Amino acid sequence: MAAKLQELLTFLPLKDVRFADTAMTGNTWFMSSLNDTYEENEAEYLYFPSEASKGRLLCIKGHDMEDGSKNSYALAWPESLPDSATLVNGLTFVSDTYYDYGNLWHGLCAMAPLVGWSLKNECLKPTRWILFHWGEFRDKMGSWIQHLMHANFGEVKIKGFDGGDGDGPYCFEKAVVTRHDLGGMGREKKLEVFDLLRCKARSFCGLDPEGKGKELLVNERGVPIIRLTLLMRSGSRSFKNATAVTDIFARECARVEGCILKVAQSEDLSFCDQVKVMTYTDIVASPHGAQLTNMLFMDRDSSVMEFFPKGWLEHAGVGQYAHHWMANQAGMKHEGAWWDPVGQECPSPEQDLQCFLFHKDGKVGHNETLFAEWAEKVINKVRISKQEQLSKNFSTKPWLNSSACAC
């Protein structure tokens, strides 16, 4: 019977091109024959072996990096693994994403469900990671997200097929598969996951997991300290006149006792430098871009100010609100955004995609009056909030009451 089951085993394409046009609207082209497990507040996932898989293991064959339909998968009983298959021991995390693992925001969205699954399951850690993008194999993730996963899970071993020859097949003793990024994960769970990642990253970088110590919360006069960070970027979506923008924020910060301004160039910072800068930040002001994902490392209830080039409001679609969503998911306060009204006009205004590509890498101007008023408003809002906390118990941090550092 085992031999017959081996012969009957059929490998299906990892990427089902029948759903190529609907991959973002409820269907999935990755392992399309299988249905996810849904649990309230949790991300969608598949687990092998399980009752849903009838005790079968996940087997994967092929590691094509250009055509996911050439890679394949099957489910096999442990006693009837396909000929020449290699059994890979331990727990394997398998991720497929519609976006990529290089960008900070997209990488975080792809990894968060696996962190959430681990948190729910006694903090189990993977032996290896198998990464796919549209069913196409990927052999690395971006440095930032790999450091973050290392901080949470320990060494990150990507691919990690042990033994075997060529394209496999490889069958996994235990495997968790996620393919919808944050998927159905509820806000409560997202807060729990981001609290954990914040805490682990701080510990990994030698910082107090609780963030700013009490001695850093007030100055010698007992006035709350407000740390304002201008997180700059170079190239696309950078400020046209960074000096002028810095002068505006410096002037407004100087008007409020206890306000301290720091200017940081995101691409010049190591992972732990980014963690440190943002741990000691109460307000971050930055152009739209992946560097804003570092808001993850600020305390809950910190504030975010965001700036966009000309044309984004009209043509960039809902994706421009990614960091607004993240602020909500991580427990931050998104204090609004400013879209530059000045710049070249798109030659084909009726074509959103073409106009977005035209404006995508534009630079951000400034409005001195508006920026000054906005900065004043946010700084004073934070000042009042900190004074209220001081009158109660300044050392109490709301995020510490969650599952932070539980693993």
**What is the 3D shape?**
globular
Count the E strands: 13
The percent of residues in helical segments reads 25-40%
Q: What is the number of helices?
A: 10
Q: Could you name the ranges where pLDDT drops below 50 across 5 or more consecutive residues?
A: none
Strand content: 15-25%
Overall pLDDT, averaged?
91
Using only C-alpha atoms, the radius of gyration works out to 24 Å
Architecture of the largest domain in CATH? Answer: 3-Layer(aba) Sandwich
Supply the CATH superfamily name of the largest domain.
Answer: Flavodoxin domain
Q: Main beta sheet: strand number and arrangement? A: 8 strands, mixed
Distance between the termini: 43 Å
Series of secondary-structure elements, N-terminal to C-terminal: HEEEEEHEEHEHEHEHEEHHEHH
Indicate the CATH topology of the largest domain: Rossmann fold
CATH class categorisation of the largest domain:
Alpha Beta
Briefly note the structural class of the backbone. Answer: alpha/beta
User: What's the number of structural domains?
Assistant: 2
Walk me through this protein's architecture.
The protein has about 400 residues and is of the alpha/beta class. It folds into 2 domains: about 1-185, no CATH class; about 215-400, Rossmann fold (3-Layer(aba) Sandwich), CATH 3.40.50.360. Helix content is about 30%, strand content about 20%. The protein contains 10 helices and 13 strands. Strand 6 (about 130-135) and strand 7 (about 135-140) form a beta hairpin. Helix 2 packs parallel to helix 3 (about 145-155) and helix 2 (about 105-120) packs across helix 4. It is globular. The mean pLDDT is about 90.
